[in-house]
Specification:
It holds the Pfam family Flg_bbr_C. By secondary structure, this protein is of the alpha+beta class. It folds into 2 domains: 2-65 and 206-245; 71-202, no CATH class. The chain has 2 helices and 18 strands. The protein has helices at 2-27, 208-245, and strands spanning 40-45, 55-60, 71-73, 80-83, 87-91, 97-100, 106-107, 113-114, 122-123, 126-127, 133-138, 143-148, 157-161, 164-165, 172-174, 180-182, 195-198, 200-202. Strand 11 (133-138) and strand 12 form a beta hairpin.
Length: 246
Amino acid sequence: MDRALYLAMTGGTQVMNAQAIRANNLANVATTGFRADFEQARSMQVNGDYYPSRVYTMTENPGTRQTQGALQQTGRDMDVAIQGEGFIAVLDGMGQEGYTRAGDMQLTMAGQLITGNGLPVMGIEGPIFLPPLDELSISEDGTISFIPQGGDGTQITSINRIKLVNADSESLTKSPDGLMRTKDGSVLQPSNEVQLVAGFLESSNVNAVEEMTKIMELARRFEMNIKVMDTVRNNESASARILERG
């Protein structure tokens, strides 16, 4: 009976882990450039200084869905979306380079170009800083052009270029902060093949209906594991009563 209890307990725990992955996907259904995570369960043997007679389930995140989300027109000059494959290079909170599809750009008071969640955007020559300006535009290759503050409209200046990168999806992994990184920790080189479209943002590629369906399915699995544990407890109680009468 303890084997059945162990299997039901580990099964319920792993179902909760799968629920967390699906719930995180659903919570980010409206997050710009978000990539949905997959979840799957597989059997794992319990190894040790004994015969490996027991197997439990383990939930894992085998990868991230890399399909492109729908492009939503915003009309804002500093909003950009990647056409097809590729990523925008940014710096995380530790100053390490990561990659995102979120193109909701902003300028800080110091003139630094950042994403909507405050991550510095990387250029070919490092983090991007801009002087006071009246108008800004971003071309398909990421080149930033602007009219200086007080300019007459003809003084268009180009400065730096957003670092756009591309890599095989199998060589990338998604970190807990939502950024993509290379599995070996290397830094990707700029790619001239990645193109941007200004005035658009890429929506999340999460399918809300699919996630809700999976969450309900996982909830039923969790209930099944709880029922198995209740059944084992009831059987143990019945066995104890039989032994007492004997």
